[in-house]
Design brief:
With 196 residues, the chain is α+β, with helices and mostly antiparallel strands. The chain is built from 7 helices and 4 strands.
Length: 196
């Protein structure tokens, strides 16, 4: 996961950047507490490990991503944005948005997709990998990935529709089009919300 990302960026990063990234990977992969992470610089003074605060700041700069925290219901019923922006209790389960100290009981971290895609396309190796879809040739006798699926193949024959208006082009008709997949974890799509 992070190791592959580091390999792809090898030519663009300084050794100091790699030190930040290795420390960040250690903390996140091994689930180190902030307190434990901050002790590493004293336990290994020659390792050039910075504080967690400085490490997070450098990783944020290197990734160019700006996570946006949103308050959400403690039971994941809703996010307090849009029609729920001014709500103080959940419209679905009536639980309060804030705890007794006035802090959000639960937060959802959103990373805007556009900025992620822009950064993705700054990496030559990743751009080359995106051509797989553009150069893909369907063989109905084989199934290796999502591009072989009947749903994807049927989308390619349909015109794009936006706000009820049909556009002149088909789905994925441009070699530069991107097929995004969605993988979810930790939300309950059903009313009783006992299972995710």
């Amino acid at each position: 996961m992070l190791t592959k990302w580091l390999f792809l960026l090898a030519e663009e990063l300084s050794e100091e950047d790699f030190e930040f990234l290795r420390a960040f990977a250690l903390k996140t992969d091994e689930h180190l507490t902030n307190k434990t992470f901050n002790k590493l610089q004293y336990a290994f003074p020659k390792a050039n490990i910075n504080t967690w605060k400085n490490t997070k700041a450098r990783i944020k700069f290197l990734s160019a991503l700006c996570p946006m925290p949103y308050d959400c219901c403690i039971n994941s019923c809703c996010c307090y944005v849009g029609p729920h922006a001014d709500a103080t209790t959940c419209a679905f389960c009536s639980k309060p948005q804030l705890d007794s100290q006035g802090q959000p009981r639960k937060r959802f971290i959103y990373i805007p997709i556009i900025k992620r895609l822009v950064e993705f396309f700054k990496n030559a190796s990743m751009v080359e990998k995106t051509w797989y879809r553009a150069q893909f040739h369907h063989n109905p006798e084989t199934v290796k990935d999502v591009f072989y699926s009947s749903h994807y193949q049927s989308l390619k024959t349909r015109r794009v529709e936006v706000d009820g208006k049909q556009r002149p082009h088909h789905h994925f008709s441009d070699d530069r089009d991107i097929a995004l997949g969605l993988s979810t974890d930790g939300f309950a799509p059903f009313k009783k919300q006992k299972h995710t």
